[in-house]
């Protein structure tokens, strides 16, 4: 684990050039005790103390010994949080994860102690609650890189590691009596797992997709009732020629979109719904395929992030040099459609092979955006409450900026915040569901929330000013090296946020 004390360059002290050093003083020699150099007091200690004191959290979990790379929130019991990362500072340290419950976190008073009826008692009240581990996830020989609760009820917690292992844990949540966790089984088909994504399809519960460093994509269904074979392979795909960096399901869980460092985007027909409607490519696997061979889609340096419109109309892929490609998705009719409707769909698909603009087949490049100067590492989409709803696409970049596009206005820039995280990488973006509120975290160690209702660019604004900043939460060590927030969850309402820090601490904040 990196040290919390950074090396800081200090400018030379100002000297008054009109004053001369006396000759007697110049001849005086000061000898250190025992011939050793006298250590100077470092201003870094004061700097570290300031960071520790500036803590907005209402609770913390500090059992991890090193960086936390992954965090996941139970879909039904929002207070149940899973985190994972590296177990120690050694290069060969195994991975580890934990479960904890944030419901024990005490709400902090809105007013300062001086406003309380008994200021002395209020001042002595605990400022932050220490949370205890409910269960420890073990068995990984390298860092846990991804976590996911299966949908719709969070019956299974899945962990993915840089050791290539996918481990499945059955979680029996007992309100008022904690949670009982037991290992179901594991699978290891790849060298490294980059991401996990639970399938939201009600017809296919407890299903999860993963992307690997070798470019492969795997879909598993976890069956808690099958002790002999709980991790069952549904599909596996091998069209990406470089690391598969991100993936996302459509809202109905019928299609899975993935991107890769080879600048390819594939939308997989996992359950055969698109094939039944004649909307698949010649390979029989994808409902949509775009690669760098198409110069309109080429992103030199690869693609690293993905997000899908809540209405299932488009997929956005972010990549190197600030590029964002927006592509229309196929429109699938319900599986209960009549045979005549299926025939009509096949007819439209056949006609669409000669027309990239056919909305039923998808594949139309709706926008090629390039507002930011460095890799787009995170994307988020929201349906803001207007009539009709406004679709917002937010992009966070390594250059420290956030850009918000208005899909209804041909993806015109609605907000540009160059200094969103003080020059440090933006790690994750997430909208409070169906709202104008966007939450972001970065390598500066800060979590911020933005109100995007005001239109227009804020190119002159940093992390405040007219950029729409509502609030920020501090408590993690930042400034990049050895610090930063690597992920967060905020539930459906955004009232409580839980973070995973590169400093090995998870913090709970209250909005």
Automatic annotation (TrEMBL):
<dbReference type="InterPro" id="IPR051179">
    <property type="entry name" value="WD_repeat_multifunction"/>
</dbReference>
<dbReference type="InterPro" id="IPR019775">
    <property type="entry name" value="WD40_repeat_CS"/>
</dbReference>
<feature type="repeat" description="WD">
    <location>
        <begin position="137"/>
        <end position="170"/>
    </location>
</feature>
<keyword id="KW-0677">Repeat</keyword>
<feature type="region of interest" description="Disordered">
    <location>
        <begin position="335"/>
        <end position="359"/>
    </location>
</feature>
<dbReference type="InterPro" id="IPR015943">
    <property type="entry name" value="WD40/YVTN_repeat-like_dom_sf"/>
</dbReference>
<dbReference type="Pfam" id="PF00400">
    <property type="entry name" value="WD40"/>
</dbReference>
<dbReference type="InterPro" id="IPR036322">
    <property type="entry name" value="WD40_repeat_dom_sf"/>
</dbReference>
<keyword id="KW-0853">WD repeat</keyword>
<dbReference type="InterPro" id="IPR001680">
    <property type="entry name" value="WD40_rpt"/>
</dbReference>
<protein>
    <submittedName>
        <fullName>Putative WD repeat-containing protein</fullName>
    </submittedName>
</protein>
<feature type="compositionally biased region" description="Low complexity">
    <location>
        <begin position="338"/>
        <end position="357"/>
    </location>
</feature>
<feature type="repeat" description="WD">
    <location>
        <begin position="237"/>
        <end position="270"/>
    </location>
</feature>
């Amino acid at each position: 684990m990196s040290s919390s004390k950074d090396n800081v360059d200090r400018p030379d002290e100002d000297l008054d050039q009109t004053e001369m050093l006396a000759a007697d003083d110049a001849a005086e020699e000061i000898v250190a005790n025992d011939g050793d150099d006298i250590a100077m007091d470092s201003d870094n200690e004061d700097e570290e103390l300031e960071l520790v004191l500036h803590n907005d959290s209402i609770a913390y979990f500090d059992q991890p010994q090193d960086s936390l790379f992954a965090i996941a929130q139970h879909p039904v019991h929002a207070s149940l949080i899973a985190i994972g990362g590296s177990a120690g500072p050694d290069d060969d340290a195994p991975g580890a994860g934990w479960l904890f419950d944030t419901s024990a976190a005490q709400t902090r008073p809105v007013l300062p102690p001086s406003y309380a009826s008994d200021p002395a008692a209020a001042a002595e009240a605990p400022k932050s609650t220490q949370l205890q581990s409910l269960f420890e996830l073990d068995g990984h020989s390298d860092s846990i890189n991804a976590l996911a609760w299966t949908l719709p009820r969070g019956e299974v917690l899945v962990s993915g590691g840089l050791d290539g292992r996918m481990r499945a844990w059955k979680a029996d949540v007992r309100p008022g009596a904690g949670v009982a966790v037991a290992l179901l089984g594991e699978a290891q088909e790849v060298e490294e797992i980059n991401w996990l994504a639970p399938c939201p399809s009600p017809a296919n519960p407890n299903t999860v997709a993963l992307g690997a460093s070798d470019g492969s994509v795997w879909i598993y269904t976890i069956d808690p009732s099958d002790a002999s074979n709980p991790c069952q392979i549904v599909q596996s795909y091998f069209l990406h020629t470089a690391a598969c960096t991100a993936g996302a399901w459509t809202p109905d869980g019928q299609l899975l979109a993935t991107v890769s460092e080879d600048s390819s985007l594939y939308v997989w027909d996992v359950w055969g719904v698109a094939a039944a409607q004649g909307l698949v490519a010649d390979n029989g696997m994808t409902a949509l395929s775009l690669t760098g061979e198409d110069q309109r889609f080429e992103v030199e340096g690869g693609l690293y992030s993905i997000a899908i419109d809540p209405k299932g109309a488009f997929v956005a892929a972010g990549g190197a040099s600030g590029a964002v490609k927006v592509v229309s998705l196929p429109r699938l009719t319900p599986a209960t459609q009549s045979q005549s409707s299926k025939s009509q769909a096949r007819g439209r698909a056949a006609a669409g092979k000669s027309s990239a603009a056919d909305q039923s087949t998808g594949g139309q490049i709706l926008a090629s955006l390039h507002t930011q100067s460095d890799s787009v590492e995170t994307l988020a989409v929201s349906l803001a409450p207007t009539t009709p709803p406004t679709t917002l696409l937010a992009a966070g970049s390594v250059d420290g900026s956030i850009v918000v596009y208005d899909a209804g206005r041909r993806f015109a820039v609605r907000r540009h915040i160059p200094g969103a995280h003080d020059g440090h990488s933006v790690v994750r973006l997430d909208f409070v569901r169906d709202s104008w509120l966007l939450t972001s975290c970065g390598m500066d160690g800060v979590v911020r929330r933005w109100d995007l209702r005001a239109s227009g660019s804020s190119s002159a604004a940093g992390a405040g000013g007219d950029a729409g900043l509502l609030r920020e939460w501090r408590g993690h060590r930042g400034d990049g090296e050895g610090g930063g927030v690597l992920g967060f969850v905020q539930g459906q309402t955004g009232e409580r946020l839980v973070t995973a820090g590169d400093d090995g601490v998870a913090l709970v904040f209250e909005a």
